[in-house]
Design goal:
With 202 residues, the protein is mostly helical. The termini are far apart. The protein is 46% helix and 8% strand. This is Malonyl-CoA:ACP transacylase (MAT) domain-containing protein.
Length: 202
Amino acid sequence: MPALWPSQPCTRAVSISHFRLAAPLNRETAEALSAWAGEKSGALVYSGHGASGKQVWLFTGQGSHWRTMGQTMYQHSTAFADTLDRCFSACSEMLTPSLREAMFNPDSAQLDNMAWAQPAIVAFEIAMAAHWRAEGLKPDFAIGHSVGEFAAAVVCGHYTIEQVMPLVCRRGALMQQCASRVGRDGGGICRRRHADAAGSPV
């Protein structure tokens, strides 16, 4: 069983039997299991049988990137590589250095900049979805958080890669400009107590 642990987040719902017990893994686990075995209420252990359900794919937002993200998958998955190449091409005129360079060069610091980080996140998520589809998986629902909404929109078929990637590049560049301006000039919000009162910084 330990050999399966790394794959459980991706395969538990579709390829292996569900565990019959679910319990919090902490110092109270043994006590909770004993309480459950004694059929005590409030044992914090739940038992039952898994049933086939629908798949929901979640596409996360800013902060999920890392240097060389996608490089290993690019080397081992044709679907992933082909889709990522489309993403690279779709934003090639908007990013210098290229998105490929930013993602695959371990010495590049471009992903510290939102102008590259946000397109990298969306491109990776779209390519990862293509890989899972090639493996026979299909989402019943897709949701996205922040910039991940762009990836979800592509996966659901609402927009194409060529439509979305330039938008994400522009979004990332604008957000980086705002962040740089706040860092340089200071930033904040103002509150107003009355229509004719001067705003005071918060």
